[in-house]
Amino acid sequence: MAKKGMSQHLKSLTAPTFWPILRKEYVWVIKPNPGPHPLNRCIPLLILIRDVLKIAENAREAKRVIFDGNVYVDGIVRRDYKFPVGLMDIVKISKADKSIRIVPYPVKYLWYVNIPEEEARLKLVRIENKTLVKDGNIQLNLHDGRNIVIKRFQSEPINYKTYDTLLIEIPSQTIIKHIPLEVNKLAIVIDGRNVGRIGKIININERTGMKRKHALITLEDLSGHRFQTILDYVMVIGEEKPLIKLYEG
User: Fold this and answer.
1) pLDDT tens across 6-56, in order?
2) pTM, entire model
3) Which one of 34, 47, 166, 176 has the largest count of C-beta atoms within 10 Å of its C-beta?
4) Residue 216 in this model has a pLDDT that exceeds 70
5) For this UniProt entry, which segments traverse the membrane (predicted)?
């Protein structure tokens, strides 16, 4: 009989390197279900509760916390312990009275930052694509799998472009602010060797014949050091300072 789909299992040694698991003690590890984030850019809820936040001591306790409806991801109750949590997701654990945001982090790639209650409804999302839908409306396809439809005849038309960032309210998906990707904007690196670094965009080098996502971007951090990465690895987070909390302190 032919193989149907991808493997349903994941070995500890081949799991993403930023998962804080005991790779040589156990052969198998939880494999996240298909969802808003790819395998190499997400953390399953069970590992987040047990190994990252250490709210539970073992898988049974972590599953009980999740099954009881104590975990909210972007304002929605998630009872799937394999649900993938990724970039900029807001996770609230009602039982522990704790809210966190998943952010890019140097070396660890993805980690969390504690956020105040008033920020638990705010999320930054990046526009990955635009689609023309019924009645001439524009559908914005965002990095976390969600879609927002922009009416064709709105009172204040805004030119949304791919790789721009939106500050939205969750779970209603109401757009609060639009931050275009351009020079002098503040951005964070979400992938590559400079992941987690924050800097102001100094230059965007787009060449004819090159895909836009491979354009070279030069950024300058708070110390005045300049570094480069590609456009696909950058997410705008504000103008002079981040619109939301992205690091402790």
Assistant:
1) 788 899 999 999 999 999 898 999 999 999 999 999 999 999 999 999 999
2) 0.90
3) 47
4) yes
5) none
User: Considering the domain boundaries, does residue 220 fall inside one?
Assistant: yes
Q: Is there a contact between 214 and 191 (Cβ–Cβ < 8 Å)?
A: no
| Buried-state track 70-98, b at ≥16 Cβ within 10 A, e below 16 | bbbbbeeebebbbbbbbbbbbbbbeeeee
Shared domain for 101 and 27, answered yes or no, is yes
Distance CA 122, CA 46 (A): 24
Residue 216 lies in a domain: yes
pLDDT band for position 163 (cuts 50, 70, 90): very high
User: How far is residue 114 from each of residues 20, 48, 104, 207, measured CA to CA in Å?
Assistant: 18, 14, 14, 40
Taking 3-state DSSP, the helix, strand and coil percentages for the chain, each rounded to the nearest 5, stand at: 15, 35, 50
Output the six-digit token pair for 149.
């439809």
To the nearest whole percent, how much of the chain has pLDDT over 90? 74
156 belongs to a structural domain: yes
Q: How confident is the model over 110-124, as a mean pLDDT?
A: 93
| SS3 track for 18-69 | CCCCCCCCCCEECCCCCCCCCHHHEEEHHHHHHHHCCCCCCHHHHHHHHHCC
The tally of domains found in the chain comes to 3
List the domain range (segments joined by +) for residue 76: 10-119
